[in-house]
Amino acid sequence: MNPASFFSPDYATARAKFRAAAKAAGAEVVTYPHPLQGPDGGDLSTDVVRIGPADAHRYVVCNTSTHGVEGFCGSGPLIGVLSEQIYRELPPNVALLLIHAINPHGFAWLRRVNEDNVDLNRNFLDFSQPLPVNAEYAPIHQYLVPRNFEGEELAQADAELAKARERLGARGFQTAVSGGQYAFPDGLFYGGNKPTWSNQTLRRLLPELIGDATHVMFLDFHTGLGPYGYCEPINGHAPGTKAFDRLYEWIGDCVTSAQTGTSSSTRLSGTIGLGVMEALPNAIHTKTTLEYGTRPNDYVRLALRSDCWLHNHGDLKSARAKEIKALIRDAFYRDYDDWKELVYVRARQIIRKGIAGLSAQSDQKD
Length: 366
Ligand SMILES: [Zn+2]
Hints:
By secondary structure, this protein is α/β, with parallel strands linked by helices. It has 11 helices and 7 strands. It has a 7-stranded mixed β-sheet with strand order 1-2-4-3-5-7-6, with helices on both faces.
């Protein structure tokens, strides 16, 4: 089968394809309806499939669309795994949990954030505690999303950002912008001030569907960092832990770590993997982000700034809105067959490595 056929041009098609593939595989789809609608008035939901031996308690959990529009990428491998019947290869002790669009609103509306402008991968924090402070974000906020996103004002804002980058260095600038912030609800990489719908849904569906899990490998599909089509597995654990080492054993030397500085990603707060661990406290966890490259960082950042401006100040029905939506879709999803093939083939390899690693893992707690 041509891997490109597993991918979809929009959220509604992806959702229908995933459901059809699950049905063809004889698997039940559990649907968690989202309270809002898509731009076309269509329903939104997180759709989940557990597939594999009924008495398996070890799970490869594939999660997609944490960052909404990045779901174009993640949806493809889920549909591919079902269509190619990869689940037939499962050993008796491992099953798959496929989460289609944990942030369906962002996917449908072509946004990286959710319905509250929240970055879901910064939202898994204990909100009763003081929130992380990103002091370097505040001075550049007004330049990242200026009120007028064109002409002289945009040129001035870009000049100020260039100065900040000079002052902080490329890495420091990336951390300031994308590390996560909790002070500007209309800004970029905003982590929210309470658990979002997607956060609550994840915490609900995991115990409901795989509350019996003893071992979990969590694969979270992302796009927007790195070279075209390249998949960077980013270690979700701290150096020095057993889980950190396990990822290298299972996947290989291509695994990187934001904490050791080998990753294209900067260190983040409140990531979704923490939510998975909290939702399944009795399981032994191994978690990684799969980060697929699309476009250069500057291109992606411009798309995010434009989209944030559009939803803060612009007209969603305008011609400019159309341009911006095309830009953000292109920044996070390369709509070419070779890119889709790279995404799918690598995902399938890593899922297979995860299944093998998980199957052979000892029962010893970390
Ligand atoms: Zn992402």
